[in-house]
Design brief:
This protein has two helices and three strands. The protein is of the alpha+beta class.
Length: 82
């Protein structure tokens, strides 16, 4: 199946400043939810993403959207440098 670049999946929105996923090359989205307090995380927007893409998601998860972007970008850069 073909991944639709730019498609926004339920519960997510486009995010500026985040680097493309190191595995898929697809621009990520920011997921936002509230469970006691607001939580933000950056996720690869490839619905057929490999499991490794979720490592960046879990690393970026925090209560500040700017910090989530910073953590995602840090993860992408670390993986690229290896």
């Amino acid at each position: 199946m073909k991944v639709e670049e730019g498609k926004i999946y339920p519960g997510s929105r486009k995010v500026k400043g985040a680097l493309p996923c190191k595995n898929c090359g697809i621009n990520p989205v920011m997921e936002v939810w509230k469970s006691g307090k607001m939580t933000y995380a950056i996720r690869c927007n490839n619905m057929y993403r490999p499991d490794d893409c979720d490592n960046g998601f879990y690393r970026s998860k925090c209560n500040n959207p700017e910090e989530a972007i910073r953590r995602w970008n840090e993860w992408v850069k670390e993986c690229v440098d290896e």
